[in-house]
User: Fold this.
Amino acid sequence: MVPPNGYTAAGPPETPVDWLAYLHGKLTNQLPDMWRYAKYYEGDHQRLAFSQARYKAEFREVFETWRDNFCGLIIDSATERMVVEGFRLPDSPGFDTDAREFWQRNSLDVLSNAVHLDAMLQGRAYVLVWLGDDGKVRITPRSGENMVVEYKAGSQTELEAAALFFTDSWGRPSATLWTEAYVYEVKAGTTEWENGSRRPNPLGVVPVVPFHNRSRLAGEPYSDLTNVIPIQDAINKTVSDALTASEFAAFPQRYVTGLEIVEDAEGNPVEPFKVAVDKLLQAEDPAAKFGQFEAASLSNYCDLVGLLLQHMSSLSRTPSHYFLVNGGTAPSGEAIISAEAGLVAKVRERMLHFGEAWEKVIRLCFAWEGDKRAEAFSMETVWRDPEYRTEAQHIDALLKLKQLNVPEEQLWSDAGYTPSQISTFRAMRKEDAKAAAEVQKLGPQPDHPGTAEGAKAAQIAAKPPQGNSGNVSRKIHEQK
Assistant:
């Protein structure tokens, strides 16, 4: 389906086929790096890459599947703290229920984590907002390996075009192009892009939202593994050397001198001893002497790996105790909060970028519904607190906020309760209030002024209190 010459025009694309050729070429240039980052994340890399040919032949079956990969840890330690709780509008109390409906209907509690993971791992991920066959809005995450976008000239927020290149389970490629004016679709099984179908875009905007990982103003989005991979390679090299040394030099080698070498019929030396744990070495020749070489120490390799892990921790802003570089003793209490400050700051910075993208997704959903909230640019994404604290510390902080008259619903949200749980709390509080009112009706009721008992009670209440002559006399005497 790809034109053999690609897109060769000097100016911007004009026809749908030109757009597809241009965007496909752009995607093709990005794929090698994205595949490389994915392999490092999954640990499918550097299989004895630094070993000599002799060692590869000796250890292929033993160490080929061995992995000491920290790239996955660096990505997961950040993405596991990114949880979207809901969306809030300043004019509406609590979470927006319609936005939550879009979110839950499209299973984004799970798929949103995949979007964050791909964005931080490969530098980019995308979300398509389109109508499904049932006429309802569908939010579909797409990998950067099969979707690509182009921004308008001079803009970093408005898209001019987006394209999806997808191959189904039967190996049939398809392509879809979105612009503000039209949608061009090449169905699976069609061999030429020229045979696609074109129809107007009812939304009037490109319905794709990019999730770019902290892209620069004049640069491309980048992976969080960009600066980590060289260190990971160095760790692989060092550990491979340590494994090789443990096989050849980590065991003490024994020697014997002054012993006559016996040869077989072909002139090859015959091994004089079968060394084992339960064997005793002896020789009749009094000039024979036995000894052994010291085993090679592997501590130097361990020290170097520890130093490399410290560098990796610093560059990735991942706490050092995640790598157990402190001898396996994890910090506790305030030390953990201090050690994780850099990681929490990195996560909050990613939340800033990804939260803006999710708000665009929800506004596109409202645009499909014809809702005025499609222009709700004051919408904000509510994230779960990325900082790990003990339950006692967290609740104590919330109780102090309550003294500042922070609304209870906000405190519930800060405590980590989901919007569904908060809605249940509201209903439960109403039921508790109704139950308390029913219990109060069963007890003694206060007298009403309109009844005879009420008039008698009012008369008794209006009677002046009895004096206490002893106290009065005492006060007069004290005054004298």
Residues 151 and 157 are 7 Å apart (CA to CA). The first helix runs from residue 16 to 42. The mean pLDDT is 82. The longest strand covers residues 159-167.
